[in-house]
Design a protein that fits this description.
The chain is an alpha+beta fold and about 180 residues long. The protein has one domain: VC0467-like (3-Layer(aba) Sandwich). Helices cover about 20% and strands about 35% of the residues. The protein is built from six helices and ten strands; from the N terminus they run E-E-E-E-H-E-E-E-E-H-E-H-E-H-H-H. The chain has helices at about 50-55, 100-110, 130-140, 150-155, 160-170, 170-175, and strands spanning about 10-15, 25-35, 35-40, 45-50, 65, 70-80, 90-95, 95-100, 120-130, 140-145. Strands 1, 2, 3, 4, 5, 6, 7, 8, 9 and 10 form a ten-stranded mixed beta sheet that branches. It starts with 8 loop residues before the first strand and ends in a 10-residue tail after the last helix. About 35% of the residues are buried.
Length: about 180
Protein backbone atom coordinates (compact mmCIF):
# COMPACT_ATOMS: atom_id res chain seq x y z
CA UNK A 1 0.00 0.00 0.00
CA UNK A 2 2.95 2.32 0.59
CA UNK A 3 2.14 6.00 0.96
CA UNK A 4 -0.89 5.96 -1.32
CA UNK A 5 -4.03 6.94 0.54
CA UNK A 6 -7.57 7.00 -0.80
CA UNK A 7 -11.09 7.64 0.43
CA UNK A 8 -12.11 4.59 2.44
CA UNK A 9 -8.73 4.22 4.14
CA UNK A 10 -7.92 4.98 7.75
CA UNK A 11 -4.86 6.73 9.08
CA UNK A 12 -3.54 5.32 12.34
CA UNK A 13 -1.33 7.70 14.32
CA UNK A 14 2.18 6.43 14.99
CA UNK A 15 2.53 5.56 18.70
CA UNK A 16 4.87 8.45 19.49
CA UNK A 17 2.87 11.22 17.79
CA UNK A 18 2.62 14.03 20.32
CA UNK A 19 0.12 16.34 18.57
CA UNK A 20 -2.73 16.57 21.09
CA UNK A 21 -5.37 16.56 18.36
CA UNK A 22 -4.13 13.34 16.83
CA UNK A 23 -2.33 11.35 19.54
CA UNK A 24 -3.41 7.68 19.20
CA UNK A 25 -6.06 8.72 16.70
CA UNK A 26 -7.67 6.73 13.94
CA UNK A 27 -8.90 8.95 11.11
CA UNK A 28 -11.32 7.81 8.43
CA UNK A 29 -10.52 9.44 5.08
CA UNK A 30 -13.70 10.56 3.32
CA UNK A 31 -12.07 12.47 0.49
CA UNK A 32 -8.59 12.47 -1.00
CA UNK A 33 -7.88 14.60 -4.06
CA UNK A 34 -4.86 16.33 -5.52
CA UNK A 35 -5.88 19.62 -3.88
CA UNK A 36 -6.32 18.16 -0.38
CA UNK A 37 -7.89 15.59 1.90
CA UNK A 38 -10.72 15.39 4.44
CA UNK A 39 -11.26 12.90 7.23
CA UNK A 40 -12.75 12.43 10.69
CA UNK A 41 -11.18 11.18 13.90
CA UNK A 42 -13.15 8.02 14.66
CA UNK A 43 -12.06 7.50 18.25
CA UNK A 44 -12.52 10.75 20.17
CA UNK A 45 -16.02 10.91 21.65
CA UNK A 46 -17.00 14.13 23.36
CA UNK A 47 -19.38 14.40 26.26
CA UNK A 48 -22.37 15.78 24.36
CA UNK A 49 -25.38 14.29 22.61
CA UNK A 50 -26.83 15.29 19.24
CA UNK A 51 -30.03 16.45 20.92
CA UNK A 52 -27.99 19.13 22.72
CA UNK A 53 -26.57 20.47 19.43
CA UNK A 54 -29.47 20.29 17.01
CA UNK A 55 -32.90 21.69 17.76
CA UNK A 56 -35.79 19.47 16.79
CA UNK A 57 -34.07 16.14 17.37
CA UNK A 58 -36.55 14.26 19.50
CA UNK A 59 -35.49 10.67 19.99
CA UNK A 60 -35.29 8.19 22.81
CA UNK A 61 -31.84 7.20 21.56
CA UNK A 62 -28.72 9.13 22.48
CA UNK A 63 -26.73 9.89 19.36
CA UNK A 64 -23.08 10.25 20.32
CA UNK A 65 -20.93 13.08 19.03
CA UNK A 66 -17.21 12.82 18.32
CA UNK A 67 -14.39 15.32 17.81
CA UNK A 68 -13.78 15.01 14.07
CA UNK A 69 -10.75 17.27 14.00
CA UNK A 70 -9.52 20.79 14.60
CA UNK A 71 -10.80 22.31 11.33
CA UNK A 72 -14.17 24.15 11.33
CA UNK A 73 -15.06 23.14 14.88
CA UNK A 74 -18.35 25.02 14.54
CA UNK A 75 -19.68 22.51 11.99
CA UNK A 76 -21.36 19.12 12.36
CA UNK A 77 -20.79 16.21 10.00
CA UNK A 78 -22.00 12.62 9.89
CA UNK A 79 -20.90 9.25 8.62
CA UNK A 80 -23.53 6.57 8.24
CA UNK A 81 -24.44 3.25 6.65
CA UNK A 82 -27.84 4.24 5.24
CA UNK A 83 -26.88 5.92 1.98
CA UNK A 84 -29.83 4.33 0.19
CA UNK A 85 -32.21 6.21 2.56
CA UNK A 86 -30.45 9.56 2.67
CA UNK A 87 -30.20 11.37 -0.64
CA UNK A 88 -27.17 13.51 -1.42
CA UNK A 89 -24.95 11.15 0.61
CA UNK A 90 -21.43 10.62 -0.67
CA UNK A 91 -20.44 6.97 -0.86
CA UNK A 92 -17.04 6.44 0.73
CA UNK A 93 -17.08 2.69 0.14
CA UNK A 94 -19.58 -0.14 0.60
CA UNK A 95 -21.33 0.36 3.93
CA UNK A 96 -19.92 3.85 4.57
CA UNK A 97 -21.44 7.17 3.49
CA UNK A 98 -20.70 10.78 4.34
CA UNK A 99 -23.26 13.57 4.71
CA UNK A 100 -26.57 13.85 2.92
CA UNK A 101 -29.75 15.88 3.14
CA UNK A 102 -29.84 17.18 6.74
CA UNK A 103 -33.60 17.88 6.91
CA UNK A 104 -34.35 14.35 5.72
CA UNK A 105 -31.79 12.99 8.19
CA UNK A 106 -33.67 14.61 11.09
CA UNK A 107 -36.95 13.21 9.72
CA UNK A 108 -35.45 9.70 9.47
CA UNK A 109 -34.13 9.94 13.05
CA UNK A 110 -37.55 11.13 14.29
CA UNK A 111 -39.19 8.25 12.40
CA UNK A 112 -36.86 5.68 13.94
CA UNK A 113 -35.43 4.70 10.54
CA UNK A 114 -31.91 5.84 11.44
CA UNK A 115 -30.78 4.45 14.77
CA UNK A 116 -27.68 5.30 16.78
CA UNK A 117 -25.87 2.23 15.42
CA UNK A 118 -26.33 3.56 11.86
CA UNK A 119 -24.65 6.94 12.23
CA UNK A 120 -21.88 8.88 13.97
CA UNK A 121 -21.78 12.65 14.30
CA UNK A 122 -18.58 14.72 14.29
CA UNK A 123 -17.80 18.28 15.35
CA UNK A 124 -15.18 19.67 12.99
CA UNK A 125 -13.00 17.65 10.66
CA UNK A 126 -9.40 16.83 9.90
CA UNK A 127 -8.13 18.44 6.73
CA UNK A 128 -4.92 18.59 4.76
CA UNK A 129 -3.99 21.05 2.03
CA UNK A 130 -2.37 20.02 -1.25
CA UNK A 131 0.66 17.81 -0.55
CA UNK A 132 0.41 18.12 3.25
CA UNK A 133 -0.87 14.61 3.92
CA UNK A 134 1.69 13.10 1.53
CA UNK A 135 4.44 14.88 3.46
CA UNK A 136 3.10 13.54 6.77
CA UNK A 137 2.97 10.02 5.30
CA UNK A 138 6.52 10.30 3.98
CA UNK A 139 7.74 11.47 7.41
CA UNK A 140 6.09 8.43 9.01
CA UNK A 141 3.36 10.16 11.04
CA UNK A 142 0.62 7.79 9.89
CA UNK A 143 0.05 4.12 9.12
CA UNK A 144 -2.46 3.53 6.30
CA UNK A 145 -4.96 0.71 6.61
CA UNK A 146 -8.40 -0.29 5.39
CA UNK A 147 -11.47 1.36 6.92
CA UNK A 148 -13.90 -1.30 8.07
CA UNK A 149 -17.41 -0.05 8.86
CA UNK A 150 -17.35 -1.73 12.28
CA UNK A 151 -14.57 0.71 13.25
CA UNK A 152 -17.17 3.47 12.98
CA UNK A 153 -20.34 1.81 14.22
CA UNK A 154 -19.31 -0.98 16.62
CA UNK A 155 -15.78 -0.56 17.98
CA UNK A 156 -15.19 1.03 21.36
CA UNK A 157 -13.44 4.39 20.89
CA UNK A 158 -10.87 3.73 23.62
CA UNK A 159 -9.82 0.46 21.96
CA UNK A 160 -9.93 1.43 18.28
CA UNK A 161 -6.28 2.47 17.90
CA UNK A 162 -5.07 -0.90 19.24
CA UNK A 163 -7.78 -2.82 17.35
CA UNK A 164 -6.90 -1.24 13.99
CA UNK A 165 -3.18 -1.95 14.47
CA UNK A 166 -3.80 -5.55 15.53
CA UNK A 167 -6.11 -6.06 12.56
CA UNK A 168 -3.35 -4.84 10.23
CA UNK A 169 -1.20 -7.68 11.61
CA UNK A 170 2.54 -8.39 11.45
CA UNK A 171 4.72 -5.78 13.17
CA UNK A 172 1.67 -3.59 13.79
CA UNK A 173 0.31 -6.05 16.34
CA UNK A 174 3.47 -5.42 18.36
CA UNK A 175 3.16 -1.64 17.95
CA UNK A 176 -0.41 -1.86 19.31
CA UNK A 177 1.02 -3.05 22.62
CA UNK A 178 3.26 0.00 23.14
CA UNK A 179 1.93 1.67 26.27
CA UNK A 180 0.90 5.27 26.12
CA UNK A 181 -1.71 7.67 27.35
CA UNK A 182 -4.58 8.45 25.09
CA UNK A 183 -5.66 12.03 24.73
CA UNK A 184 -9.45 11.68 24.70
CA UNK A 185 -11.73 14.53 25.59
Amino acid sequence: MGNKVKAGDILIAQPFMEDGNFKRSVIGITEHRSDGSVGFILNKPINIQLQELVQGVDSDENYSVYFGGPVASDTIHYIHNVGELLEDSTKIKNGLYWGGNFEKLIFLIQSGLIRKNNIRFYIGYSGWSQGQLENELTSGSWIISEWFSNYTFQSKANKLWEEALKHKGDKYSVIAQIPGKRNYN
